[in-house]
Design a protein that fits this description.
Distance between the termini: 29 Å
Radius of gyration: 15 Å
CATH superfamily: HIT-like
Structural class: alpha+beta
Order of helices and strands: HEEEHHEE
Number of helices: 3
Bound molecules: guanosine-5'-monophosphate
Shape: globular
CATH architecture: 2-Layer Sandwich
Helix content: 10-25%
Number of strands: 5
């Protein structure tokens, strides 16, 4: 079954300028802004501008230009935050939730970039 994109989701509204965001980075196909409920000193969401529900949807159906732009946007955000280990930063965690088991709240692809402290164990230790 193909994904059905809900254009009333909160990130679609941010992209249309209907609700504000604290923008960190913008390119032709991507936007990055601060999470409204930060879980770390840096908590940035990076989204593609196109209507993609989650990462596998994007990976299978986005254009090469969108995928390139989005990947570069994530790198640019890490540079902007000064967290990339390769340039002296202290590191970060990147998370992309999808669907029910992934506990995705907003059905528009986003990666979370969390940084500014040790982010702790990758997941809850539960089988
Ligand atoms: P998910 O669980 O879908 O991976 O994460 C969705 C994220 O979106 C959450 O971390 C939540 O705090 C954030 N969020 C929800 N509504 C808004 C909003 O209106 N503005 C911003 N900037 N972030 C939001």
């Amino acid at each position: 079954m193909e994904y059905q994109y809900d254009d009333q989701n909160i990130f679609a509204k941010i992209l249309r300028g209907e609700i504000p965001c604290k923008k960190l980075y913008e390119s032709e196909h991507s936007l990055a802004f601060s999470d409204i409920a930060p879980k770390a000193p840096h908590h940035v969401l990076v989204i593609p501008k196109g209507p993609y529900v989650c990462y596998d949807h994007f990976a299978r159906t986005a254009t090469d230009a969108e995928i390139l732009d989005y990947t570069r946007a994530i790198g640019a955000v890490c540079d902007e935050l000064g967290v990339a280990p390769g340039t002296g930063g202290n590191g970060y965690r990147m998370i992309a939730n999808a669907g029910n088991d992934g506990v995705q709240e907003v059905p528009h692809l986003h990666v979370h970039i969390l940084a500014g402290r040790n982010i702790g164990p990758m997941v809850l230790m539960r089988p």
